[in-house]
Amino acid sequence: GESVGLHLPTLSVQEGDNSIINCAYSNSASDYFIWYKQESGKGPQFIIDIRSNMDKRQGQRVTVLLNKTVKHLSLQIAATQPGDSAVYFCAENNKAHAGGTSYGKLTFGQGTILTVHP
Amino acid sequence: KAGVTQTPRYLIKTRGQQVTLSCSPISGHRSVSWYQQTPGQGLQFLFEYFSETQRNKGNFPGRFSGRQFSNSRSEMNVSTLELGDSALYLCASSLVSGIIQETQYFGPGTRLLVL
């Protein structure tokens, strides 16, 4: 059959606004979460990460919030700039069912397209 | 410190052929993971190598294979190419500290087109 592309959520903001990008994860055993930014024609670029023993972590202009109760992750970008326009992915590290670590395997969300208008 | 490098950046092959992609990790990183990115499936994990051993594998057919060399450089091979193998193949490297997942840093990818 014909393949259907992923329909990525989109977020459009004005330059200078704050942006919030959300991500739901499914594996309650995941203990490590990362946000990546991917610009057209490039590989994913690391933004910020957080481990499950934390619920908030701040970087330069970015904050990641983790709510393990509802399995929700968010990325907040302060004073969004046109250069922030990209696709943003959340990723989680799933533990193997056997209880061991899942070496090197990140499971990615579908991504969110962020467009910043000057 | 130089980032993750991948070669070639672009590749065009025909169905039935095989292809080998190369990845050089960040200096000091010993874990290399490979991912396939397509518009239909997004980013999917292929496999991970550490100390020349495959430690983890995703749900891909046996046509997809890889290896890692003693200098941590890695290659992945796809045999008997199919149209659906057209994708961006991404390599990511990370430090290793026991069983703790460390940050993965990605290369620019190899864009493979199968005709």
What key attributes describe this structure?
heterodimer, A: 118 residues, mainly beta, 6-stranded mixed beta sheet, globular, B: 115 residues, 7-stranded mixed beta sheet, 4-stranded antiparallel beta sheet, 52% strand
Give structural notes.
The complex is a heterodimer of chains A (118) and B (115). Chain A is an all-beta fold and 118 residues long. Chain A is 0% helix and 48% strand. Chain A has strands at 10-14, 19-24, 32-38, 45-51, 56-58, 62-67, 72-77, 86-93, 106-108, 112-117. In chain A, strands 1, 3, 4, 8, 9 and 10 form a 6-stranded mixed sheet that branches. A 4-stranded antiparallel sheet of chain A has the order 2-7-6-5, with no helix packed on it. Chain B has 115 residues and is mainly beta. Chain B is built from no helices and 11 strands. Chain B has strands spanning 5-7, 10-13, 19-24, 31-38, 42-50, 53-57, 64-68, 74-78, 87-94, 105-106, 110-114. In chain B, the strands form 2 sheets. In chain B, strands 2, 4, 5, 6, 9, 10 and 11 form a 7-stranded mixed sheet that branches. In chain B, strand 4 (31-38) and strand 5 (42-50) form a beta hairpin. The relative contact order of chain B is 0.33. The interface between A and B is medium-sized, with 30 and 32 residues.
Please specify the SSE layout and strand pairing:
The complex is a heterodimer of chains A (118) and B (115).
Chain A: E1 10-14, E2 19-24, E3 32-38, E4 45-51, E5 56-58, E6 62-67, E7 72-77, E8 86-93, E9 106-108, E10 112-117
Parallel strand pairs in A: 1-10
Antiparallel strand pairs in A: 2-7, 3-4, 3-8, 5-6, 6-7, 8-9, 8-10
Chain B: E1 5-7, E2 10-13, E3 19-24, E4 31-38, E5 42-50, E6 53-57, E7 64-68, E8 74-78, E9 87-94, E10 105-106, E11 110-114
Parallel strand pairs in B: 2-11
Antiparallel strand pairs in B: 1-3, 3-8, 4-5, 4-9, 5-6, 7-8, 9-10, 9-11
